[in-house]
Amino acid sequence: MPELPDVETFKRYLDRTSLHRRIIGVDVRSAYVLKGVSGRELARRLKGRRFESSRRHGKHLFVRADHDLWLRLHFGMTGSLHYFKDEEQAPKHTRVLFLFANRHRLAFEDQRKFGEIGLIDDVNEFLKKRALGPDALDIRLTQFREIFGKQRGAVKTILLNQKLIAGIGNIYADEILFRARIHPATQVSALKQKTVSKLFRVARDILKRAIDAKADMDRMPKSWLLPHRGKGGKCPRCGRELKSATIGGRTAWFCAHCQRKSH
Ligand SMILES: [Zn+2]
After folding, report:
1. Annotated catalytic residue: which of 59, 64, 95, 105?
2. Ligand 1 center to 246 CA (angstroms)
3. What is the pLDDT of residues 163-200, one digit of tens each?
4. How many degrees, rounded to 5, is the angle at CA 170 between CA 168 and CA 174?
5. Fewer Cβ atoms within 10 A, N terminus or C terminus of the chain?
6. Is 250 a catalytic residue?
7. Residues 3, 8, 116, 175: which is the catalytic one?
8. Residues 201-236: pLDDT tens digits?
């Protein structure tokens, strides 16, 4: 499921391939992804414009077209972007295609159909309406401490709550907690201030390094949890078998030996 590093990687890909090109058409192949806009309206409003810039917040990507119209993209469970020239290169699960004057296309691909595409006038208003928290890479230490000082519950549940901090999902929450050596079920009220500060630093570091690796698991260090996460996986630090548990409705993977509940 695309999280902050994946969506940032899509943003950079879109910036590199699809900006400043005149849009000559929009081909909607599955209207289910459209939110608050019809296929006809999407095509009518984008035709003749250019994507000029983009902005990411958490797991959301916003692409500004000239004259201040924003395309918003959410990648759901399996969404991704592909830029290509020939129709036969179109990904199998293409849902929406943006056609450019240079005869290239940008596909929004999404096998599981949880992605979203919409048009909005104002990004800040959208973020406010969704009540999204600050982006996980923009949040300041003081804000981070405030959240952990106020909230109750398991530390992993807090990290996953997009209304508190936007961008961290199941995979990176586990990675961050593994690196910080905190058990995912640890109650936030049990965390010392210096542990919260460490969690903040670790979160930033993991997210940035994952972006550097283009969110590609094959490029991630073997010392990370990610390449070992799953049944039969061994802790890259101590070699013991990893454990899983359902926390906040999601499957957490962790090392019961390296990650403790008392901090
Ligand atoms: Zn371990």
Report:
1. 59
2. 19
3. 999 999 999 999 999 999 999 999 999 999 999 999 99
4. 90
5. N
6. yes
7. 3
8. 999 999 999 999 999 999 999 999 999 999 999 999
